[in-house]
Amino acid sequence: MFDFDGVLVNTCSSLSRESRIPAELKDVVRELSASFSLAIVSSTPSPAIAEILEKEGLRECFTEILGADVHTSKVIKIQSLLDSYHCAPEKTVLITDTTGDIGEARAAGVASIAVSWGFHGKDKLQKANPYAVVDTVPELLGSIRGFFAESAIQ
Fold it and tell me: Quick one: pLDDT at residue 12?
């Protein structure tokens, strides 16, 4: 699961139709979608997310987009995805940029990987104790791979 604003697009100032997803991150999303079911869990309205994903050629990479129009609670949205797709919480991870999302992932029973290029900085994210905090897209891909390698062992 991915948060949208601050993770896929840099929207710390504002979300607009001009928001772009970096090419390196697009490549990671495409690679991950070939092996995993991906979803967006965000506080941004779903139609705005869908429009940007469509423009960026990534809409088909995500099975679900659960934005603010679906529910305000990310815990409920995460649990809904777990139920709908029969996913084990311990084999699910939320990619996020905020400590609040890390807490909501934990409340839903899933791990989180935090990216330092979004809303909260690395130090603040580390204090929330996610599975990992990453600074670059290659580190993100490595942490995701590491998470799933570990969850396969359990």
Answer: 46
